[in-house]
Automatic annotation (TrEMBL):
GO terms of molecular function: 8-amino-7-oxononanoate synthase activity; pyridoxal phosphate binding
Gene Ontology biological process terms in this record: biotin biosynthetic process
Co-factor requirement: pyridoxal 5'-phosphate
Full protein name: 8-amino-7-oxononanoate synthase
Reaction(s) catalysed (UniProt annotation): 6-carboxyhexanoyl-[ACP] + L-alanine + H(+) = (8S)-8-amino-7-oxononanoate + holo-[ACP] + CO2
Enzyme nomenclature, EC number: 2.3.1.47
Pathway where this protein functions: Cofactor biosynthesis; biotin biosynthesis
Keywords: Biotin biosynthesis, Pyridoxal phosphate, Transferase
UniProt organism field: Pseudomonas amygdali pv. lachrymans
Domain of life: Bacteria
Length: 173
């Protein structure tokens, strides 16, 4: 760890499990074990989850092709979405938000995609500010280029179906 006295990380996204970790000197870890109230009163992870996290770490270290494949899918999606004229938010992660604005329109587009067999959730108030509802596209290394192309084609077909007069802000359900 060198110059970093404490390293904290989460395991939910890139590791595909759950929880978090703290790494540091033996003295730091022992102090946290003895005096950190959130740690003291938290249930530890089940052994099966620890094993899954360890396997994820092994895959991350050895199967670089997964990250490379995912990066190419992200690039494919962003280029295709921009060609369609969708308003993408800044994100070069596997989570690609498409800004829709109106919560009702975001829900409608999500529904249209679901009818075509695609699960793309609408994120809307109160999770995000009013007027900034979006679709949350989540890519993974398990997707193929054909999957991304199918999504882009569905977005190209469905987006024009949204009636601009469909303003139902705020929609919370």
């Amino acid at each position: 760890m060198g110059d970093v006295p404490v390293l904290v990380g989460t395991l939910g996204k890139s590791f595909g499990t759950s929880g978090a970790f703290v790494a540091g000197s033996e003295e730091l870890i022992e102090t946290l074990i003895q005096f950190a109230r959130p740690y003291i009163y938290t249930t530890s992870q089940p052994p099966a989850l620890a094993c899954a996290t360890l396997k994820s770490l092994q895959l991350l270290r050895t199967e670089h092709w997964r990250r490379e494949h995912l990066a190419s899918l992200i690039q494919q999606f962003r280029q295709g979405a921009e060609q369609i004229g969708l308003q993408l938010m800044d994100s070069f992660t596997p989570i690609q938000p498409i800004l829709i604005g109106d919560a009702g329109r975001a829900l409608r587009l999500s529904q249209l995609l679901r009818e075509r067999g695609l699960l793309v959730t609408a994120i809307r108030p109160p999770t995000v500010p009013a007027g900034s509802a979006r679709l949350r596209v989540t890519l993974s290394a398990a997707h193929s280029k054909a999957d991304v192309q199918l999504l882009l084609e569905a977005l190209e077909q469905c987006y024009p179906l949204l009636d601009a007069s469909e303003s139902t802000e705020p929609v919370h359900a």
